[in-house]
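Example record for the data management plan.
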Amino acid sequence: MHRLMFLGFAILASLGLSVPSFARAGDGDAIAAVQRASPAVVSISIWKAAPPDHPGGEPGRLKVYGSGFVIDPAGTIVTNKHVVDGALDIKAVLADGTVLPATLVDASPLVDLAVVKVNADHPLPSLEWGDSDALQVGQPVLTIGNGLDWSSSVSAGIVSALNRNLMDSPFDRYIQTDATINHGNSGGPLVDLDGKVVGVTTALFNPSANGGFIGIGFAIPASTVQFVIKHLLDPKLPEIGWLGFSLQDMTETLANALGAPQPTGAIVASVDQGGPAANAGLRPGDILERLNGRDLGDGRAFMRAIAQSPTGQPARLTVWRLGKVQDVSATVQPWPDTAPRNRMMTGQAASAMMAAPPHAGMKLAPLTDADRKKYGLQPSVNGVLVTDVETNSEAGNDGVVAGNVILQVEDVRVTSPDEVMQVIAQAHAEHRTYLAVLVLMANGAQWLSFSVSTTRS
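Corresponding structural encoding:
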């Protein structure tokens, strides 16, 4: 189909007929927005802990990629929590290709956001926040990030919907967009045509677990991100407010079933025993109509408003119950740490794992004449045979498969697995960042760069 379209345009041109222009209004704005925003977008490269291959085995390491963006010239970077979950070692690749070690500042247990920090010898380009609350469906937006580890890539689209509930947190109000979001884009910015951040790209939808982007992606709104990031950077700020109940949106059928006058507000689904809501006498089936006199659209809007309420102060809830409206006062308490960061690997545990040299996810063996015959290798080929490649490993992502041959590591010609591991161990001991490996693949010999994680200071 694509080939036929190109041929059609060629025929029109040869006949001297006018070829339709595909330039779109706003293209110049998009180019300017990318030029403003892309210097502050970073690719994030992470070694993570991986479960052992078999029960009782040692945990392994997995190389993964994500995105982030700088929010101040001193090197503070915003990304997703799921990008850094289980991180042993984090590196940020700046737009100019500079690779810097990054440290985890903090991660939110409730919202999929985290902050990491790099130290550069000069101020870094940074992004400004846009007004996500002013976004409209149909508004042009751009995603910038390390999609599929292709480094910085840009995609254009529109805001497809607002206030989407992915049931990821009690506060969900995701921006839906058709601007491309692929694996590796997580943590990157969603920007408007002013080059300002209106969201953090976080998730894509595909019915297939291994599928890619099909036009439905999601970003956390910038207003939510700013609120969370402020708390991650400054622990002295007031704590997140909590009343101890779960809510769901009212529907017309629920209103009919309960005899409620209108299908608005939020209905209490459960109440935490001993929490502020329970102490105030709230119970499942109560319908919240207003908080401190404010009409709020849905259960998540109530939860966001409560989260931002001052702790230790009373909140006035207007409740419909059994045909009557009444005001209930409940004292806002700090949100309990019900979701500890049990997947964040930092400190001594990470240092212990990082003390051992990493591997690129390959099993190696001496190359024999039988192997040469099996894989169609010339008799003159000498090196180390790759017998297996782990799924989602760094080697696998680089296209290495069983039957490939490692010919050389840096300037060392290798003929045994031990020689390969010795060079890797030496590079690791020298705190090297990458190791150049010459691999004989199906399309010929290619140099690949494998990460060599350094130990933490």
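Summary line stored alongside the record: Confidence is low (pLDDT under 50) at residues 1-25, 338-350.
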